[in-house]
Every structure is written in C-alpha cells, then in structure tokens.
Specification:
mainly alpha, TLCD, 6 helices, 147 residues
Length: 147
C-alpha cells in the first residue's frame, strides 16, 4: 500500500477507511450538537477534509492505500494525549512525563510529518491533471498547512 497508494486495495484497509470515516462523521455531529462549533472550528475543518479524502476510497475504491497511510498520523495522538493527561494531573516532574516528551517528539516526526511529506510528494504528480488525485492533493496541502 505504500507504493501503490492509488490502486492498492485490501478488505482490511477498506474497512479501516470506512470505520475512520464513520468516526469523523460521528465526531463532527457531536461537535455541532454540543454547541462547540465556534471553539472547535479547526477540528471541523480537519474532519470535513478527512471525510472528503476517505470517501474517495469508500465510493470509488481508489486511494485506499493513501487513506490507510494517512491514518498513521493518528499514532502520534496517543503520546499527545498521555502528555496532556499528565499535564492536567500536574505530573510534569515525573520521569514518565520527560520520557514521553521525547517519545512524543520522535512519534511526531515518524507518524505525522513523514507520512504527510510522503503523501504530498506522491500527490504532486497529479498537479497538472484534473482527477481525483488533484482533489486529494488540495486536501492534503490544506492539512499540511494545518500541521
């Protein structure tokens, strides 16, 4: 799936993209229904862009590999959440907090920046074409700016 981002397809990858799209839909509805739209507008923008990208894999069965690769970004969220929970509980003096701080930095580069850079490089081939790849490049570039 790393090499054939456009054409690679597997049932597990397809189901993962479907599940993730469902999560983004649910989270978007939750933000709007709870009245947090103004405070969480950047999440809404991110969710709409992600859903647009995932729907290409769901409805056209193309770029499923790209959707799976994009989800690697979520791995770094584990360490961000641990860091935030430790800050909330005033545990910044613990060794685990300091270790997690550096692990978080490594995970940011490995699972957030590296996949985004790889996907951006891949999709730049579609700049001069009016295809689904060009649409996905637009979404990806907006996500690059947000990161």
């Amino acid at each position: 799936m790393l090499v054939e981002i456009e054409t690679a397809w597997s049932l597990s990858g397809y189901l993962l993209v479907c599940f993730s799209a469902g999560y983004f839909i649910h989270d978007t509805v939750d933000i709007v229904a709870s009245g947090q739209t103004r405070a969480s507008w950047e999440y809404l923008v991110h969710h709409v862009m992600a859903m647009g990208a995932f729907f290409s894999g769901i409805f056209w069965s193309s770029f499923v590999g790209g959707g799976v690769l994009t989800l690697l970004v979520e791995v770094s969220n584990i360490f961000l959440t641990i860091r935030m929970m430790m800050k909330i509980s005033n545990a910044q003096d613990h060794l685990l907090y300091r270790v997690n701080k550096y692990v978080n930095l490594v995970m940011y580069f490995l699972f957030r920046l590296a996949p985004q850079a790889y996907l951006t490089h891949f999709f730049l081939r579609y700049v001069n074409q009016r295809t689904l790849g060009t649409f996905l490049l637009g979404i990806l570039l907006m996500l690059d700016v947000m990161i």
